[in-house]
Amino acid sequence: MASFFIEGGTRLAGEVDISGAKNSALPIIAASLLTDKKVVLQNIPDVVDVRTMIQLVRHLGASIEFKGRKLSIQASCLNSVEAPYDIVCRMRASYYVLGALVAREKKAVVAMPGGCAIGPRPIDLHIKGLSSLGTKVDISGGYINADARGLVGRKVDLQGPKGTSVGATINVMLAATGASGRTEISPAAVEPEVVDVANFLRALGVEVSGQGSHTITVKACDRFEERIRYRIIPDRIETGTFAVAAAITRGKISMHECMSEHMTSVFEKLDQVGIGVSQTGQSVTISGSRQKRATDIFVAPYPGFPTDMQAQFMALLSIVPGTSTIKESIFENRFMQAVELMRMGADITIEGDTAVIKGVKKLSGTHLMASDLRASSALILAGLAARGRTVVRRIYHLDRGYENFETKLRKLGARIRRVRE
C-alpha cells in the first residue's frame, strides 16, 4: 500500500494542464457500446476508475486501445450482457453499462454497486427511469436483471427525495437511444458531465435536445455515424482542487485547458475568501493571499457549489481567520475528512449536516488516513500548508480520480513523494 510523504510550507507556483473529466469519461466510455462503429475519445484521463471501466467494456466484448490520452473503442459485437460483481464492486459508475446494454441488446445483468463511504447512493431512480421506458427489472442475487424487449419512449419523471440524479439522467438517456419514439426526461440533471454525454450522443448521430436544462429529449437512433471522434471536457473538480492548492499555500498557479464557465460557484467562493481569480480564455490564474476572510458554503446540485469540492474547501477554511460553515445537502456522511483535519490542529465541529470551522493560525503535519477520493485531496492540500511532515495513507482512493497528481504538484514546487510501505 502506498502513502504520500509531504513536507509542508512551500508556496506553490507555476502552470498546470487540467486533465479530462473522469465523471464524463466513464459514462461516455459506456455509451460507446451503443454502436458497432469505431469510437475515438480524446482527453481521457489515465486514472484507476477509467482503467476499471475499460476492463468492464472489454469483458462485454469491446476491443480497446488506450494510448496517451486517446481511447479507441470498437464494439462490433458484444459477447456478454453481464457486468460481474468483481468489477462493479470497485467502481459505482460501472452501472452506466446498464443503459447502454438495455438500448443495444435489450437485456442486461448488472451487479448492484453496493455501499459507499460517503453515504447511501441508491439506484432507485435508475430503475424507476428504465421501468418508465418499459424495461422489466428484477433484482435478485445482488444483480439487476433487465428485460427491455418492450422499450418505448415516454415521459420519464426522475424527481427524487433530493432532486434529480446525474447517474439516472445519463442511464435513461443511453437507454432512450434504443427506445422507439421520443423520450422526455424531466427533471433532468444539468451538470456539465450530463451535457458532455448528451453532446457525445449527438456526435454518434442521436437526436438529443435540452441538455443543460431540466428537460432533455432523446429520439431513438437506428443508424449511427460511421466515424466518431469526441473530446472529453476538462475536469472541473481537478480545476477546483488546484485552485485551492494555490489558495491554501499562498501561491500562484495558472491552470490551462479548463472551462471557467463550469467553475462559477467555486470561483465566487474563492473571491469571497479573498483569493485572486483571473481568467483568460481557457486559462485561469489563482493568486493566494495572506488576508483571507471566512465564508459560508451551501453544497447544492449544479450550478450550486459542488459536493466534490467541499472537502478541499474545508481544508482551506481551517486556516482562514473567523468562523466559516459548510452545509452538505447531498451526502449525509461526507465530512469524514474533518476528523483527520482536527488531528492536524483544525478547529471543526460537526452539527448534523453542517460543519462549523474556526480558523487556526497553522496546521501541524501528522499521520493521516484517507477515506475517499475527495477527502484524499483535501488531506494532501492540508499537508502542503502544514508545518512539518504529513503522511497520508490509503492514497489508492486518490488514484481513482486524479491523473499524475503528485507529479503535477511537484512541478509546482510541492515537496511530495509516493512511498510504498
UniProtKB/TrEMBL annotation:
Enolpyruvate transferase domain ranges (all copies): 7-409
Annotated GO biological processes are: cell division; cell wall organization; peptidoglycan biosynthetic process; regulation of cell shape; UDP-N-acetylgalactosamine biosynthetic process
List residues, modification 2-(S-cysteinyl)pyruvic acid O-phosphothioketal.
Answer: 116
Q: In which pathway does it act?
A: Cell wall biogenesis; peptidoglycan biosynthesis
One short Pfam family name for this protein?
EPSP_synthase
Entry annotation: catalytic residues = 116 (proton donor)
**Which is one Gene Ontology cellular component term of this protein?**
cytoplasm
Instruction: Tell me what reaction this enzyme catalyses.
Output: phosphoenolpyruvate + UDP-N-acetyl-alpha-D-glucosamine = UDP-N-acetyl-3-O-(1-carboxyvinyl)-alpha-D-glucosamine + phosphate
Protein name per Swiss-Prot or TrEMBL:
UDP-N-acetylglucosamine 1-carboxyvinyltransferase
Source organism (scientific name): candidate division WOR_3 bacterium SM23_42
Q: Gene that codes for this? A: murA
